[in-house]
Design brief:
Layout: E1 3-8, E2 11-16, H1 33-46, E3 50-53, H2 60-68, E4 73-77, H3 81-95, E5 101-102, E6 105-109, E7 114-118, H4 122-128, E8 133-138, H5 145-154, E9 155-165, H6 168-171, H7 176-183, H8 193-210, E10 214-224, E11 227-236, H9 238-245, E12 248-253, E13 259-263, E14 273-277, H10 284-296, H11 302-313, E15 321-322, H12 323-330, H13 337-346, E16 351-354, E17 357-363, H14 367-383
Helix pairs in contact: 1-2, 1-10, 4-5, 5-8, 8-9, 10-11, 13-14
The structure holds S-adenosylmethionine.
């Protein structure tokens, strides 16, 4: 394979050159840098001792945990032989030592941090490391669902998981049967599909954890580019698991765009999306520490700082109104987003933009009030 050298964060990396990233013998996607930047900030903020990067590919993510966070033991794992060999080369490039491989393992002690490289199926590795890791990072191709069970087994009680899902088509309802198979949930098409997909993913994690008497506390969950990313803390005990399950529920949406959601283990109406997580998508203290760390992080990418600021300012209530979809559904004009936000704010309802869509608002206002504000903003616009 033809190799080029790139820099990301504090890491230098050899990556294979390929016309299309999915044709590369070892996967490296520069677009996922923001995902890795936020993950580095999360590991810095949470200070886990033992970290597993279960799907390492070039090793970029795990290498950045070694170089940019205080983790004391970082495991880099990938099933592919090409990836395993490239990870060893990248360790040598960054630290000047080539770990000696014994079969499918290679360990190196860098003084403040030990690095352990494995070539294993992620499920086999995680299943053999029962309650060992403080932070487990799942960043597979497509759905993380086949790996959730062993991830919850391998993480310590009170430990953390970072979960990426790139099967957005499945979670957003383009492949309904696949969503039923992978997540045992009913997705939704239309303007709310991204938030529904994210909440299906969290709801699935909650159900996987519950059978081990583990609850799940959501630290941060977001949608970006072509993926979902969720950071959760595992909380111990049957009562905590029950509390997490009680945050699951269902969503209904009418033709007009009006939506309703309610908590409950089973739906009490037909034509629903779910089960979904209906709890918060962020923990304010965690997000604030990520935001602060992003401002002081060397080589910080301004897009990361900007995205974290948007997440911080967002009202944390389930679902949103997309002004384009609402205009189409009601036959009204598309309003200026800021004018609608101002009108609803003047009426006493907290209303913000949302990272899910640049044309949407999250608001505390009931549907009828949103329609009335939309009508007023449209009339004002016409009379100018
Ligand atoms: C999306 S890539 C990982 C990207 C990487 N985390 C990053 O940030 O650049 C998924 C990787 O998982 C590996 N893989 C696929 N199935 C696996 C399995 N069952 N166990 C471990 N690794 C696996 C692939 O070889 C591939 O390198």
């Amino acid at each position: 394979m033809e190799i080029v050298e790139v820099k990301e964060g504090l890491a230098r990396l050899k990556v294979p050159l390929a016309e299309r990233i999915y044709d590369s013998p070892v996967f490296y996607n520069p677009v996922m840098r923001l995902n890795r930047d936020i993950s580095v900030l999360a590991v810095k903020a949470l200070s886990p001792r033992k970290v597993l990067d279960a799907f390492s590919a070039t090793g970029v993510r795990g290498m950045r945990y070694v170089l940019e966070t205080p983790a004391e033991e970082v495991w880099l794992n990938d099933l592919s032989e090409d990836a395993f060999n490239l990870i060893l080369q990248n360790i040598e490039l960054n630290f000047g030592v080539r770990p000696t491989a014994e079969g499918d393992s290679a360990d190196v002690d860098l003084g403040e941090v030990r690095v352990l490289v494995r070539r294993s199926d992620a499920n086999a590795l995680m299943s053999s490391m029962f309650r060992y890791f403080d932070f487990v990072d799942l960043d597979p191709f497509g759905s993380p669902a086949p790996f959730l069970d062993s991830a919850f087994r391998s993480v310590r009680r009170k430990g953390f998981l970072g979960i990426t899902a790139t099967d957005t088509g499945v979670l957003c309802g383009a492949y309904r049967n696949a969503c039923r198979r992978k997540y045992l949930a009913e997705p939704l098409r239309g303007e709310l599909c991204h938030e529904v997909g994210l909440r299906i993913l969290i709801g699935t994690a909650v159900r996987y954890a519950a059978k081990y008497d583990l609850g799940v506390k959501v630290l941060l969950a977001y949608y970006r580019d072509h993926y979902f990313r969720v950071f959760v803390q595992v909380v111990n005990g049957a009562r905590k698991a029950d509390e997490s399950l009680s945050m699951l529920g269902y969503l209904w949406q009418e033709e007009s765009g009006k939506f309703e959601y309610s908590r409950g283990f089973l739906p009490d109406k037909p034509e629903v999306a779910g089960p979904l997580w209906l709890g918060p998508l962020k923990n304010d203290a965690f997000l604030q520490s990520l935001h602060e760390l992003s401002l002081e992080h060397p080589l910080g990418d301004p897009r990361t700082v900007e995205f974290l600021a948007l997440l911080s300012s967002e009202l944390d209530v389930p679902f949103y109104y997309d002004t384009h979809a609402l205009a189409k559904r009601t036959g009204m004009g598309v309003p200026k987003l800021q004018a609608l936000i101002d009108e609803l704010t003047d009426r006493g309802y907290i209303t913000t933009r949302t990272h899910f869509s640049p044309t949407s608002i999250k608001t505390e206002a009931p549907f009828e009030e949103v329609l009335s504000a939309l009508r007023k903003v449209n009339n004002l616009c016409r009379s100018l």
